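Try this one yourself first.
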């Protein structure tokens, strides 16, 4: 088990294979990587290099094929299905490129979903959702439907939803690629500001070089491997 005071994620020799026999595809080819508690690590590299597969394994959405995996002191792949779902719901927040908001629900109702899944009473869940929306500068849009919000506002709702249950690890898959530069920077400012100093760890998969400056470290991937890890401009360690 890792030292969770300083290391949020540690993987060694991590592989992920899809299919069998001659049709098998090795998406991850022996990944070695540590992610420090409280840092913002960006995973960058060409399409198809394994970035999304890696974060899916780290978050317990996919099973690894081989290797050692320690996420917040746990190997999610070793957990039973129900235990893994509960672990993920308690410890992991997700921010997606496509926002993934429920169109028939208001902003506050969308943000409350992770709390309702954890059996928080509806009134309390909505109260906490509204408070989180205020933190992402959307206090005046809590009752708006997603279709009534701009792309940047929808992404901020998605960030509020990812953070409302106070996860230790937040995983972001291309969170700014659908946004213009100014809006993308604003979203990253909010995401970075809400996690800095909280010992909450961020892993951001991105092709968007415009936001590289927010990273504490940048892990470059190619062909299923981490080929380099660089100190980013946001490093404060």
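Now uncover the answer:
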């Amino acid at each position: 088990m890792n030292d969770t005071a300083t290391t949020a994620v540690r993987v060694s020799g991590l592989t992920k294979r899809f299919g069998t026999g001659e049709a098998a595809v090795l998406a991850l080819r022996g990944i070695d990587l540590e992610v420090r508690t409280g840092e913002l690590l960006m995973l960058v590299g060409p399409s198809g290099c394994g970035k999304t597969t890696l974060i899916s394994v780290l978050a317990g959405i996919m099973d690894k094929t081989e290797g050692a995996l320690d996420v917040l002191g746990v190997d999610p792949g070793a957990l039973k299905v129900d235990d893994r779902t509960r672990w993920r719901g308690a410890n992991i927040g997700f921010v997606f490129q496509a926002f993934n908001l429920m169109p028939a629900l208001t902003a506050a109702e969308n943000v409350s979903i992770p709390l309702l899944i954890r059996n928080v009473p509806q009134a309390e869940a909505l109260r906490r959702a509204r408070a989180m929306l205020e933190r992402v500068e959307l206090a005046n849009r809590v009752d708006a439907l997603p279709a009534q919000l701009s792309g940047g506002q929808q992404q901020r709702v998605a960030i509020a939803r990812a953070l409302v249950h106070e996860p230790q690890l937040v995983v972001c898959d291309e969170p700014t690629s659908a946004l213009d530069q100014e809006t993308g920077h604003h979203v990253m400012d909010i995401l970075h500001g809400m996690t800095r100093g909280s010992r909450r760890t961020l892993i951001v998969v991105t092709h968007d070089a415009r936001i590289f400056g927010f990273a504490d470290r940048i892990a470059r991937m190619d062909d299923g491997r981490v080929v380099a890890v660089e100190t980013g401009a946001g490093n404060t360690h």
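Discussion: The first helix runs from residue 51 to 58. The chain has a mean pLDDT of 92.
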